[in-house]
């Protein structure tokens, strides 16, 4: 066991601890690589825990099965939320920072003791949160994700949440030190785009984490009796800086991963440094305002505040996302056209390595995140439309489209990539590995759409164990939604099975996969190498395929926008 | 051609942008401003806005206000509240709704007062005859929110709590009857 584990953390390094990656050509130091592995493996463990609770939560919401009763439902839902929405993603994101910083720049990871201290603190916080969720009893209730005061949430939960957030901040320090060293003692060169994206991600993360520490500290001092009363509206505003901010970290990390993976397995290039970097700058200023989406149906905030914040300041951040929506596929199109890989409108895409799960996971992540997660995010973030979305199952559909389909799928691709390029193991079954993104994207995509329709068309609420077949004590239930709920249930089961398949392939390959020899690229490198030589300058390459896809996206956006507003104006008159 | 791992060389800021990428920037920019404009304008000309007066209030004071309102109100044969004026008070508490069931007249504008006595709750309401016509408002224990509403269609409207408020949350249901005047 120990031998197997220590093998996982070894590679053919030279005397100075460096090796050259056979896929990316990057100079990788042992310190950076081993810490990426440490955080990445921890993330996968959190995914296993959260995934187990996906089964009990989904099979309870599918009331035909009704797996667990109300008494345990909130506890299970809290475990599902914290382990998947926070731990799986944040541990992955620290790993991504270490890839985007020291690995891409060809440096050692500085301050490795700080990195380890960060890991230990994060793990301690995560274990504490799991413990206090699981043992909440008597007058105390499970927190769900939000720990909305003045609910009686275990005191230890607030303390553990603070510990976890402090740990994530500590773990980010070695990355920030890398950037500091690069700019202070390195050359005057511009940072590579991936490093720049990771750097903006880290700033967004620090903003979110500070808000989170403030929110949970406010809850903690109230719980221990230092202050007598707590303002629920103020807590909500503070909480959502981390509650949604954590998901903006996911977004930026995921987009950075999109640029990274489309390049290394698809041969994408950067079509405009100026445009892509400007989009990241827009995120820096505006993306965290999106936290206001959760407060549109709140009483205690003014209309002007709501309009400015929910629109990310006149949709500055939505504009940024639409920029990436063009730039990333265009990078793929330009890179492949320059190499003569596929003609016509979409030949560059159809000729791409679709059997490679790293590639297909990335592309499905881009498409589903944009079409489902992105569009619904803007819709539900409109002040008025929000009253038809707020706290319905449609909201859950939205963030499963962004996080469970979009980010998780991209990170699944990244895990596969890390298994081959850093752990240097081949897949135990190439066919099963190829199947994972198709199976997961298909099943989770349909489950997600079902959630959205259940919320919008039937008003099925979130955070409840029974409402479709039975509202205890009432002669009313939302029984008309039962058939669609069954569709959701079936596809949720399939999505969970796809998740299990991912874990089996990933862990199986780590433990039993054939060792890839030095120089073996496991077939990952795109045809014709990473970047094409010569030819036209990149801006002159034809990008009409991407433009056509973006027009389809915009048409979908407009149609869904009009439909949502049409549904809204059918309502009775509401508001001053 | 530069990849995302490469440090861009030279004056990359002045590199030209692909013509179609430029067009897309225009389309996306115009759309961004358009949906902001519509949302903002709708607060002025639209009929469905989550906008109303709010007051900071102590939960126990709000409970007393709702109780005084119920004492003043009439009841019909089924024991449903008939509001004495245009104000309708609803007090959410674990795990029921004070002030419901209430009987309202279609077409009349009421000031719906929403507040809670203990923790946060969710006011999720829909008519029985059309489940897709549903709205959801957050209720906080320290705030009284006065939202004007006038119901066009007579019918039975069901209110369920859609914010987790503790063990028993899923039984929190109330009814609002809208009748022809």
From TrEMBL, chain A:
Domain Cytochrome oxidase subunit I profile, first and last residues per copy: 38-517
Keyword Transmembrane part of the UniProt annotation: yes
BP term (GO), one: aerobic respiration
GO cellular component entries: membrane
InterPro entries given in the database record: Cyt_c_oxase-like_su1_dom, Cyt_c_oxase-like_su1_sf, Cyt_C_Oxase_1
GO MF terms, alphabetically ordered: cytochrome-c oxidase activity; heme binding
Protein name: Cytochrome C oxidase subunit I
UniProtKB/TrEMBL annotation, chain B:
Segments traversing the membrane: 22-39
Domain of life: Archaea
Primary location: other
Record localization: Cell envelope
Keywords annotated in UniProt: Copper, Membrane, Metal-binding, Transmembrane, Transmembrane helix
PANTHER family given in the database record: CYTOCHROME C OXIDASE SUBUNIT II, NITROUS-OXIDE REDUCTASE
Name assigned to this protein: Cytochrome C oxidase subunit II
